[in-house]
Amino acid sequence: MIACQRDVEAVRAGVERWLRARLGADLVLAAPRKPSAGVSNETLLVDATVGGRAELLVVRLLPSGPPVFPAYDLARQYRVMECLAATDVPVPPLVGYEADASLVGSPFYVMRRVEGEIPSEIPPYHAFGYCHALAPDRRARVWWSGIETLARIHALDWRRLGLDFLGVPGGGTDPLDRQLAYWAGYLEWARSKRPQPILDAALAWLRAHRFTPSRTVLCWGDSRLPNMIFRGEEVTAVLDWEMAFLGDPEADLAWWLFLDWCSSTGYGIPRLEGLPERDETVQRYRALTGRRVEHLDWHEVMAAFRYGVITLRVARNMEAAGLSVASTDMETNNVCTQRLAALLDLPPPGTARAVTHVERVTARVQFHLTGPGGADWYLAVDDGHGTRHAGTVANPDTTLTVAAADWAAIQSGELNRTEAFLGGRMKIEGDVTLLLQLEDMISKLSR
Predict the structure, then answer these.
(1) In which element (H, E) is residue 426 found?
(2) What confidence category does residue 447 fall into, taking pLDDT thresholds of 50, 70 and 90?
(3) Residue 250, burial from CB neighbour count under 10 angstroms (0-12, 13-18, 19+)
(4) Strands (DSSP E) along 371-433, which ranges?
(5) Which of 55, 302, 375, 389 is deepest in the core (most CB within 10 A)?
(6) pLDDT digits (tens, 9 = 90+) for 375-394
(7) 152-179: average pLDDT
(8) Burial (CB count <10 Å: 0-12, 13-18, 19+), residue 66
(9) How far apart are CA 93 and CA 183, in angstroms?
(10) Residue of 21, 12, 91 lying closest to 48 (CA atoms)
């Protein structure tokens, strides 16, 4: 999603009327706000009062800007969570689904907000936020709670729960064929006739190396730490079921591992101390499920291919909106295509980023804060120690331009930094990954 084009006040008023019929005629909604991250569905957080008590709610709508996925089915997402509500897989309590787009300009559903911590997506949790602030032993407990929850998802009896509406695969390679067909179609939709040599080669390899999965389970589809809410170190809610499907459970394990690698080593960010490594994670998953992990290599290629297709679409959306991207060849040369080239022994599309340790960094980051209250200042980092200086610096490694009011809102948490960037309100030039790694330092020096 590039930007919210929706009239948020109209959404508030429409949802308020809708909720009054369900929660109480005296219900009043406060102004909605955006959560901290997300580029897919459009999500609003709303605080309500009804009958003298507070209700913390979440409204999810179809994206109002250029979509990331070819199609969205909110009813399907809602129905998955309905089916899981009485299981040992925690999902947010649901309020209701509305198919009539005339109320707020889109179908939507409402769920109650689950209090807790969500590992940061942008900047990644390896560099900022809840997980980054934890001691190593507590990070390990967060990781294992996530893996234990993943195992519980895969142990569910999807037939008894009525999840066959997700599409029941046939025998043989059909569970894989269904996923390959979807992502091949997504690739054709996203590419707009432009060559994608590595993604095409990966798709051909995946088709040539299909196998018959040993079992079919409910797959979460987007298994990663930033899609979980934690209280302490325990999972209290599993979010974002739009990619759920019935298939080989190793797909979820591979996605979890690949997205963690992307968020750290793949982007040149050191992996957090305390988080279990790949082999240890696979062994724990095997022990929890009592099943062998037989085709993880195939699923890791599939994970890199899937995320590569998504990255392609995001890059095309940013290009169409006139937004700056990490590199001019981002859609063909990115962390996913680099990983696929390494896995499949293909010519690399570019040089992979080396891991950068902040404590060894010497860099300059320029800030142009515009409008009322604006000023120029820069961050000087020498061997990991940062200092703030007024004015401008020659040849900065990264330059950030944003309205002073928006910058203050980002630092206070009132404005989603991802939304500010993808909405064109914040412009970044230069080394974006460096900026992500320095976010904690920047936040402290911005206060």
Answers:
(1) strand 426-430
(2) confident
(3) buried
(4) 375-382, 385-390, 398-403, 426-430
(5) 302
(6) 999 999 998 899 999 999 99
(7) 98
(8) middle
(9) 31
(10) 12
